[in-house]
């Protein structure tokens, strides 16, 4: 069980999807309470009762949206696919449910004008946690298994040979690429087909390429997007590099598809394996279809 909780799980979602999720949660809570009226809500006599009950849904939306939108921005290093696991996802969703319960408890106290005499705050938190942990844990694990099977199966269908660069026939003539830093003074020149990948490192980018068949790293003060535009310019101006597609695969990575030796899948998506499997790069969801199509065309 502990091994399962440590398995990678997708974390990075577009802001729009997080808003949609918060809206759905708020709508579900509000409509559920309005339709079924548990906890003696059906016996509650008060003006504007429907509006007040739907307020629980609004509170749930605000809590969910606040957590999902603000915390990843305030703590960006915590909310990354590299650190996210099944266990963290279960804890994260359970935290949402618990804080929704706390917020709605105080909202109920404000509505009735006195402390709620039911479970009390601590009791409500405990009951909510115990009720929520099992469906939350189950749904996360089921989603993990579904995504793992999906991406593992799709990865097996991508026709990539082992060590493709060694098996390639009709290789283009070696062609050099020069990329420059933001100061327009520092630059790096390497053979196009020797590039492995480029990784974003805050205000810098780390260029990883082969030298004497061993990976070496060079640091340039430049954004990844800026280097990507320089590489695109090289592609447009020289036909030779067309056989060595260098593309974005993630917001933090540019990869040379010629150097991809294997593609695997886990619950987070695809992983690209380079240099005898020693290097692994993630593929962001937005690049899945285009990158897979490029790999199939290439191999």
TrEMBL record:
Q: Which residues cross the membrane?
A: 22-41, 53-77, 89-107, 119-146
Q: Name one GO molecular function term.
A: phosphorelay response regulator activity
Q: Does the keyword Cell cycle apply?
A: no
InterPro entries linked to this entry: LytR-like, LytTR_DNA-bd_dom
Q: Which residues form a coiled coil?
A: 217-244
For this UniProt record, give its keywords in alphabetical order, as a comma-separated list.
Coiled coil, Membrane, Transmembrane, Transmembrane helix
S-adenosyl-L-methionine recorded as keyword: no
**Domain HTH LytTR-type as annotated: residue spans:** 179-299
Look up the domain of life of the source. Answer: Bacteria
Pfam families linked to this entry: LytTR (PF04397)
Q: Where does the signal sequence lie?
A: none
Q: What is this protein called?
A: LytTR family transcriptional regulator
Which species is listed as the source?
Larkinella rosea
Q: What is the lineage of its organism?
A: Bacteria, Pseudomonadati, Bacteroidota, Cytophagia, Cytophagales
């Amino acid at each position: 069980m502990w091994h399962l909780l440590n398995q990678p799980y997708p974390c990075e979602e577009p802001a729009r999807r997080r808003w949609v999720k918060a809206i759905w949660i708020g709508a579900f809570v509000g409509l559920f309470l309005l339709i079924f009226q548990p906890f003696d809500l059906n016996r509650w006599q008060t003006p504007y009762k429907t509006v007040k009950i739907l307020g629980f849904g609004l509170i749930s939306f605000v809590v969910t949206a606040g957590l999902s939108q603000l915390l990843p921005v305030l703590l960006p290093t915590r909310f990354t696919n590299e650190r996210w696991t099944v266990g963290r996802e279960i804890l994260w969703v359970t935290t949402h449910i618990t804080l929704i319960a706390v917020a709605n408890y105080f909202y109920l106290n404000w509505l009735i004008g006195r402390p709620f005499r039911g479970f009390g705050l601590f009791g409500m938190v405990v009951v909510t946690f115990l009720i929520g942990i099992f469906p939350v844990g189950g749904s996360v694990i089921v989603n993990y298994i579904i995504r793992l099977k999906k991406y593992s199966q799709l990865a097996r269908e991508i026709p990539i040979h082992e060590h493709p660069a060694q098996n390639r026939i009709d290789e283009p003539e070696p062609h050099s690429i020069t990329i420059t830093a933001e100061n327009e003074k520092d630059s790096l020149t390497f053979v196009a087909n020797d590039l492995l990948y480029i990784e974003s490192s805050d205000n810098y980018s780390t260029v990883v390429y082969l030298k004497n068949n061993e990976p070496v790293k060079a640091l340039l003060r430049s954004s990844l997007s800026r280097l990507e535009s320089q590489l695109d310019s090289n592609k447009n101006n020289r036909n030779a590099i067309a056989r060595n597609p260098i593309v974005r695969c993630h917001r933090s990575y540019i990869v040379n598809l010629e150097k991809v030796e294997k593609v695997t899948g886990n619950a987070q998506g695809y992983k690209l394996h380079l240099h005898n499997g020693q290097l692994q790069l993630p593929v962001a969801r937005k690049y899945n279809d285009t990158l897979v199509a490029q790999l199939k065309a290439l191999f």
